[in-house]
Specification:
Blueprint (H helix, E strand, L loop, with lengths): L1 E7 L9 E4 L4 E7 L2 E6 L13 E3 L2 E3 L6 E3 L16 E2 L1 E4 L2 E6 L5
Antiparallel strand pairs: 1-10, 2-3, 3-4, 4-8, 5-6, 6-7, 9-10
Bound molecules: FE2/S2 (inorganic) cluster.
Length: 106
Amino acid sequence: MSLTPIGTIHDIAPHQPLIVDLDYDTVVIFQVGEEYFCLEDVCSHQEQPLSDGVVEDCRVECPLHGSWFDLRTGKALNLPAVTAVKTFPVVVQGEQLFLEIPEPNW
Ligand code: FES
């Protein structure tokens, strides 16, 4: 695992997600209370960015067809999406936010 710096706690707010372009993926970080959750920023149904969605009860709603995704697990909670989206742990050190990214398997 490696820690990738993605910004500070001042770059994000409960209704202002933080979008981060990684080398291989775009992810979105949502703040819920004092917690931070990171998902890949693409719905598993038809690739709509989830960063445009509404967050409620630790879930985000895809704005295109209304599937909800659990922010903790990435699990799709209702149709039409059936596949989970990837999640990454967010680590807070002081005011700095990091993503815990698995090392590539090659
Ligand atoms: S694109 Fe997200 S539910 Fe269809």
